[in-house]
Amino acid sequence: MLGAWLCCLFALVLTGCPDEGVVCTAGLTVCGGTCVDTRGDSANCGACGTTCSASEVCQDSVCGCRAGTQSCGDACVDTATDVAHCGACGTTCSAGQVCESGTCREGCSQGLLRCGGACVDGATDPLNCGACGNTCPDVQSCRSGRCAYDVVTACFTNGQLVGIQAGTDQLGPRREFGAGVQSLASWDGFVLAADMTNGKLLQAAGGNLGAVVEEDSLGVTSGSPNDILVDPPYVYVVDSVNNTLQVLMREGPVQGNGLGLRTVGQVNLGANTSPQALARFGDLLYIPLFGTASSGFRQGNAVARVDISNPLSPRKVDTIPLTGLDLKPFDGGTVMPLPYSVTATRSAVYVALTNLNPFRDYRPNGPGILARIDPSTGEVRAIDLGAERCLNAGYVEAVGDQLVVACIGEAIYDPANGYIATSVRATGLVLVKDDLPVASYALNPGCESGTPGCMVSVASRFAVAQGAVYLADTNAGRVFVVEVEEGRLVERRGYSTPAAKGPALQACPLDPRRPVSNAIDVTALR
């Protein structure tokens, strides 16, 4: 406490205390005005300002060697490629030889780079990414010879993007980006970000999140681009305010270094339909229609099917109603499907139903439900996710032959305090296999309304990288990391189990001027 106070005092004399007024969630420390996890932050390892070297990472508050390297004397080396420590510390290759896969030999195998005395894969080596000596900065990985983050989170409230390295779950620096990004996707090493404020589809290189390399119009600035589907060479964007599906095509960059997209087609899905998401099955796009309160949701509660056999001329084929499903309303009360997300597997299309009563403050009035659509017949049936573990099913994605559903839950918001959620129940993840829920992961265990120092989390969208779900939190700006195993969900970064490797990632920092920190979307770079 004394050390932190003195640090703040000196900082105040010079520049004003950067940490003043910043409040961190449990397990995090304020460093330079930002909440960090000193147990895994390479720039603040164990204490603010303690920086690990380029060859080290921070693990359990101690700087140590990166994965795949080991300590030999005072250096971290890769014994698979180091000629002075080939296969083991102190094993030195002869003059002119190289070290490949821990063995001294006369030359490199085809496809590998010779960098000094080492044979390296320039497509994946973070110390020689694309070329000898090109070291990837901070926590970026080497992906196809380019440095980039593995996962990117959009902070809607803060107007930032932040990268994450998969596996180590370390955060990169936050970068200002756009004015109202609310949806993300990725393609060929670029992040695509739909900016609702400016009506633009922005692009950033996966390793330089603070620089816009291309922007493409989304038609109008008063829309709400809810979802982006990358389907090379096309990109599809739905707008829930303007009721449109927009088609962009990659033609290569004319200026700058972006993907070179241009709009080639558009279709209006109908007034008051409020399209929410996209999934492709065959030549059809399946688009959940939420509907609008002003029309009594008569044009919603359905799934539109759009023929994209010719993407330049998308054509709405029909709509599949969801109102005939047994939504299992509580006490027989009013409830509507109000579909919000969609994913496709090899045999079916699954739609997440929020199952709300829009006439009662949009509160859940039935369990979270998946609607399973048979594409060949259009038949729809409901999968009950269980009210005790899932209310307000908000996002669904296939992970192998299983489905992961993010449940928003039933949250109570404080309108007098920036609409911060003060309590929430049945929010988290549900794992579905063979159309049955088989496991769940609950947010906020032990963090109930009124618990001192406790800020609840509200599940949002997620991305999957290296077999783990990176789940965004729209209330406290966190990202939870949950591994997906056969029939199991195992917490890796969170706060509910002793086996967790650390707290949830504070991807979007809390700001005392904005009580809500909205991590709105996550994408895994491809």
TrEMBL record:
This protein's record includes keyword Signal: yes
Domain of life: Bacteria
Keywords, comma-separated and alphabetical: Signal
SUPFAM superfamilies (alphabetical): YWTD domain
One Pfam family, short name: Stig1
Transmembrane segments: none
Identification of the protein by name: Lipoprotein
Protein's organism: Myxococcus landrumensis
